[in-house]
Amino acid sequence: MDNKTIVVVGAGQGLGNHVAKRFGKEGFRVILMARNEQALKGYEQKFVAEGIEVYTHAVDAASPETLTEALHWVKSTFGTPEVLVYNVGITTPDELGKIDCEELMRRYQVDVASAYHCISQVVDEEFGQKKGTILVTGGGLALYPSVAYLPLSLDKAALRAMVYALHEALKPRNIFVGTVTVCGAIGGDGFFAPSRIAESYWKMYNERGTCEIVYTETNI
């Protein structure tokens, strides 16, 4: 039987790769996508060393046409994937008054619009037949906005609204849309360790219940 496929847009040594690895350990074929082609090759070697079937493709979330091409490649090479993960966000802090409208729209493209674009590329009849799953990395700034991260606060709130709307709209087509809202700085070996957060993605994929897991220490 052919392996199921997970596409992770926003691969990286943090959460993206750990989510991919969690699914890969369950027998999924892993497709890693990110901007840095050299870094992707390094990730590929590590996944192969762990016995995970992996492929990579360079994309830039600021350029939707690269996402279109990459997802077309996935479909033509491996067929419609079972899982799409969008794990992209510009997380640098900002000084109030220093972000102009052009930059605000550039951030929105990367953080939100390209997530919608990726979803639109995979949502079709076959994706529904496979009970396709779309998982989006959210952030606590959607719930607790900060002026120091104003563009990201706006974008995570918009991303969360999109997930809630699409969750209901696509449910009748057997497509699950959900978000893991991470309320903290990802990293380290504690509660916010990427490998630990990745378990929430696996849980959401299997349960297909609520459209949001708020990942916060107050819930433990």
Write the layout of secondary structure elements.
Layout: E1 5-9, H1 15-24, E2 29-34, H2 37-49, E3 54-58, H3 64-78, E4 83-86, H4 101-122, H5 125-129, E5 133-139, H6 150-170, E6 176-182, H7 194-207, E7 212-215
Parallel strand pairs: 1-2, 1-4, 2-3, 4-5, 5-6, 6-7
Defining traits:
220 residues, alpha/beta, 7-stranded parallel β-sheet, 45% helix
Give a verbal description of the structure:
With 220 residues, the protein is an alpha/beta fold. The chain contains seven helices and seven strands. It has helices at residues 15-24, 37-49, 64-78, 101-122, 125-129, 150-170, 194-207; strands at residues 5-9, 29-34, 54-58, 83-86, 133-139, 176-182, 212-215. A seven-stranded parallel beta sheet has the order 3-2-1-4-5-6-7, with helices on both faces. The radius of gyration is 16 Å and the shape is globular.
How would you summarize what this structure contains?
With 220 residues, the protein is of the alpha/beta class. It has helices at 15-24, 37-49, 64-78, 101-122, 125-129, 150-170, 194-207; strands at residues 5-9, 29-34, 54-58, 83-86, 133-139, 176-182, 212-215.
